[in-house]
User: Fold this.
Amino acid sequence: MRAPERIAVLGTGIMGAPMARNIAAAGFSVTVWNRTRAKAEPLAEVARVAGSAADAVAEAEVVITMVDDSAAVTDVLFGAAAAAEAAPEGTLFIDMSSIQPSVARDHADRLAAIGKRHLDSPVSGGEGGAKAATLAIMSGGEDDDFAEAEPVLKAMGTPMHVGPHGAGQVAKLANQQIVGITIGAVAEALLLAEAAGCDPARAREALMGGFAGSKILENHGRRMLERDWVPGGAVHFQLKDMENALEAAREAGLTLPLTEKARDAYRALAGEMEMRGLDHSSYLRWLEALNGRRIGDRRDREP
Assistant:
């Protein structure tokens, strides 16, 4: 099977831009498009910047979408941007956004109806992973399509085929459940440490050496202690993922109480606390408001 050579990347924001750079660095011919052209222009040194989505995909063998949510992906593919119709027959569309599994399956069906192919391949690893090409990539779709896409995906991280259409999004939601709930557990542990007479910074260091050690405790625990709320992953994206996880759970006939409780916290942060644009580690601030107690005396660092 010949590896694809011409790649279009639609959506060049915090994640999409470094992903496009890494694809270009791996030797692929890359065309980029973003609804706000200024966000795509810095990529001109490594890629062709297209004036429209239709122009970007006109000769593409693989089209990668990396946008905010289900509605945005649907609009890029089938709405005003019209990328699906503009791409050549047989083009492989790889959606790397985080959206609802049911929407991913619908996109796969709609693309198949017009002679195009589809993988849902959301990622985990944040902006740092996108820049370092160390993203965890979870793909749903046909075996042959994944095999064709694998060289492109490997330019951005470590891909894994996890099942049929929609399965990639299910795996990403499972990832986001673990992230969102664990952020809450770390916030509760650090607040308890501080309130009950233990140095929370030293407690975190001690816990890092045991079974509680994790990237969440390491990275988000540090953010909490430093009160650094400049987003890597924003509250409103975490909330979207928790809501999507609960929707998938309802479709599967499941009740997930920990996910529901964490969702409620992120909903409060995004809503009445007006912190939707802060890093999701600001879960601590919801917990502090709930308890009337604060960790440390550092000033809050916000975007």
